[in-house]
Amino acid sequence: MSRYRFCLCFVPLLLLAGCGGGDFSDIQAFMEEVRAKPKGSIEPVPKFQPYEAFTYTASVMRSPFQPSVKIDILSQHKGSGNIKPDETRIRQFLEGFNIEVFEMVGTLSNEQGLNALVRGAGGVHRVKVGDYLGRNNGRIVSIKDSSVDVIEIVPDGEGGWLERPRSIPLKERT
C-alpha cells in the first residue's frame, strides 16, 4: 500500500517537473513593457462625426421609374379658364398618394350603387363615384367591373388647367 501512495505522489511531481524549463523571454519582455508604461495612460475615445440627416425633397416630383408623358405640341390643348381644382374642399386621405400606387382588386355592390376596392396606401380601400384619388385632384367618374375611371385636373404649363382621363384596370390574380 505504501508503494501505491509513493506512486500517487511521485508521478504527479515528475509530470510537473517536465512542464518547467521553457523559454519565457517573450513573456518577460511583454511584462516589462507593460510595467514600464505610466499608470492611468488610457487612450482617449476617438471623436465620432455626428449623423447628418438627409431630407428627400423630390417626393412631389414624377417618379423616375415611370415613363414620362409624351406631349405632342401641335395637338396640345390649351387650358380652360373654367377648369380648375376646388381649393376650398376638404382633401381626402387617398389624395396624399400618387395614383400609380393604386390597383383595382374588386368591386362591391349594395343599395347605394357599385363601389370599387383599390389596393394601395398601405391597405385596401373602398371608393365610390365622386371620391378623390391621387395627388392631381383625381375624381372618380365611373366604376365598372373591370376598371375605375378617374379624371385628373393637371396644370397645362401656361397658367391654365387640363382634365386628364385615367383608368385603373382590375388586377387579375396571377
TrEMBL record:
Query: Gene3D superfamilies attached here?
Result: 2.30.30.830
Span of the signal peptide? 1-17
Keywords of the record, alphabetical order, are: Signal
* Pfam (any one): PilP
- Source organism, top-level taxon: Bacteria
This protein's name: Type IV pilus assembly protein PilP
Q: Which organism is it from?
A: Pseudomonas pohangensis
